[in-house]
Amino acid sequence: MVTVEVEATEEFEAWFLALAEKEAEAVAHVVGLLEEKGVALGFPYSSEIKGSQALRELRVQSSGHPLRVFYAFDPRRRAVLLLGGNKTGDDRLYDTFVPRAEQIWADYLADLEKEEKRK
What we know:
A hairpin with a 5-residue loop joins strand 4 (65-73) and strand 5 (79-86). Strands 1-5-4-3-2 form a five-stranded mixed sheet, sandwiched between helices. The model has no long low-confidence stretch (mean pLDDT 93). By secondary structure, the chain is an alpha+beta fold. It is globular and about 45 Å long. The protein has helices at residues 10-17, 21-37, 93-118; strands at 6-8, 46-48, 56-62, 65-73, 79-86. The chain has three helices and five strands.
């Protein structure tokens, strides 16, 4: 069985902690699938983000609400949960969230590189 370590950014954690209990449970379930299956987790739970080299999204349904969690795998093969959002009625979610997630990812990788150099 594949087990992938999952990390979360402060941005993701703040979003997750603000979710209603039912939504948080649905997100936690799909994150559990990511831990279990890693890069093999496919559609309908995970898909690539068009136009991004590294980003993927977890696709979560909760009471008719399509929730999205943007994530990527770091060089250590850990899944990093970057940012979450509710797609309900938001036709511009990707226009807004993808650039934010890309910036969070770039900052994460820069911090990781600094850590590695200190070792």
